[in-house]
Design brief:
This protein is mainly α. It has a domain at 227-327: Orthogonal Bundle (Cytochrome p450-Terp, domain 2), CATH 1.10.230. The chain is 56% helix and 3% strand. It contains 16 helices and three strands. It has helices spanning 39-45, 48-57, 63-75, 81-88, 96-107, 119-144, 158-167, 173-185, 193-202, 208-219, 227-237, 244-253, 271-287, 290-307, 316-327, 334-355, and strands at residues 23-26, 31-34, 37-38. A three-stranded antiparallel β-sheet has the order 1-2-3. A hairpin with a 2-residue loop joins strand 2 (31-34) and strand 3 (37-38). The relative contact order is 0.15. Bound molecules: carboxymethyl coenzyme *A. Carboxymethyl coenzyme *A binds next to helix 15.
């Protein structure tokens, strides 16, 4: 390609850098589909396990295939003793996202063949990372609270097992279902920043652990998955629904970004935000957190008035904050919940990349000087 044909797109906006069969997004109409199925249908009818099978196999499973996939996932729930010892040695004031990034990287040390990159091997490694990361999060949280680590229960599904390991007691059916919906809605989303990071890393034929570790590092940024914690911090600063107007208008006046709003692709309401809004309302009602939901709703209305003309609407992170709070999660576990779900998407993209790989190597537009003199150090 000649220099004249190359174009520069800041932030790679509008650049198609990969093909995928997993998720389709129409940002104008607010459509998200996994393998052609609307996110709303999956959120209301599917389970996280079935959604992962769909993303990894590009079709829904039969009953026996789902049973077999679920059993394989459950058989991988446990962390090895060495990993648990490592988690128990971590500083209790460490941020969970730093812990997850470190521990997923560390998983490679306990894999006898971490560099094997056949599609089959990548699927096995992905299944294991997906299955054990909930225990990494739960074990670290219990360690920092001075509590015993709870072993996984292989009779429980992904959502129920995580909440059980975190709280040491079996969750209610309503909490399991709510958490499962969060996992489904966060499972995959095109070539978002962390997914791109994973694809870039695996395109060097590095290894699955490095790719997922890079993705975790990307996700924690406040412009990406870290936004859900930013939303909760904002909600906590607003004493009541009546204060929402002044608070948000002050933020706008000070040119602050309102977390949980805006998206590179969606120029209408993110369909995941619509799903989570319904869920948040129900959970807020059930758990006595209606003030939180009403504050969120008030902010959405103010933002609609002020920013809809710019195509800025709520994204997935906006109502997930209220949802996670109502599920009983601590603030710094919000972004880790995004990780638990998005491992499905990252892994699927890593597998797709390995199946038809070409090294990612974009170029830069050099804007510095040419033919500059080398001035000796004494003369500078
Ligand atoms: N609040 C106020 N202004 C905003 C916001 C916001 N949340 N989002 C975008 N804008 C404005 C921005 O200031 C800029 O205005 P101007 O043209 O006057 O300078 C304009 O919109 C375009 O912003 P941009 O940063 O160039 O647009 P982008 O496509 O790079 O932004 C974004 C996407 C998600 C980084 C941005 O909307 C944002 O910072 N949102 C808040 C953080 C957030 O909620 N992130 C979660 C994204 S969805 C889930 C995920 O990926 O994890």
């Amino acid at each position: 390609m000649s220099t004249a044909e190359k174009t520069f797109s800041k932030g790679l906006e509008g650049v198609i850098a990969a093909q995928t069969e997993m998720s389709f997004i129409n940002g104008t109409e607010g459509i998200l589909e996994y393998v052609g199925i609307a996110i709303g249908d999956l959120a209301s009818k599917s389970s996280f396990e079935e959604t992962v099978f769909l993303l990894w196999n590009k079709r829904l499973p039969s009953r026996s295939e789902l049973e077999s996939f679920t059993q394989s996932l459950r058989a991988n729930y446990g962390l090895c003793d060495e990993m648990i010892t490592q988690i128990k040695s971590l500083p209790t004031d460490a941020e969970p996202m730093h812990v997850i990034r470190t521990m997923i990287s560390m998983l490679s040390l306990y894999d006898t063949n971490p560099n094997e990159n056949s599609v089959e091997a990548a699927r096995e490694k992905a299944l294991n990372i997906l299955a054990v990361t909930p225990m990494i999060v739960a074990a670290f949280d219990r360690h920092r609270r001075g509590l015993e680590v709870v072993a996984p229960d292989a009779s429980l599904g992904f959502a129920a097992n995580f909440l059980y390991m975190l709280n040491g007691e079996k969750p209610t059916d309503a909490m399991i279902r709510a958490f499962d919906i969060c996992m489904i809605t966060h499972a995959d989303h095109g070539l978002n920043n962390s997914t791109f990071a994973a694809r870039v890393v695996i395109s060097t034929l590095s290894d699955v652990y490095s790719a997922i570790t890079a993705a975790v590092g990307s996700l924690r940024g406040p412009l990406h998955g870290g936004a859900n914690e930013g939303v909760m911090k904002m909600l906590n600063l607003i004493p009541s629904v009546d204060d929402a107007e002044d608070h948000v208008m002050n933020m706008i006046k000070n040119k602050e970004r309102i977390m949980g709003f805006g998206h590179r692709v969606y120029k209408s309401k993110d369909p995941r935000a619509s799903e989570l809004m319904t869920l948040a309302k129900q959970l807020a009602d059930d758990t006595g957190n209606m003030d939180l939901y009403l504050k969120s709703n008030a902010i959405e209305n103010i933002m609609e008035r002020e920013y809809a003309s710019k195509g800025i609407y709520p994204n997935v992170d906006f109502y997930s904050a209220t949802t996670y709070h109502c599920i009983g999660l601590k603030l710094d576990l919000f972004t880790p919940m995004f990780v638990l779900a998005r491992i499905a998407g990252w892994s699927g993209h890593v597998i797709e990349q390995l199946g038809d790989n070409r090294l990612f190597r974009p170029t830069t537009d050099y804007v510095g000087p040419h033919a500059a003199p080398y001035v000796s150090i004494d003369d500078r």
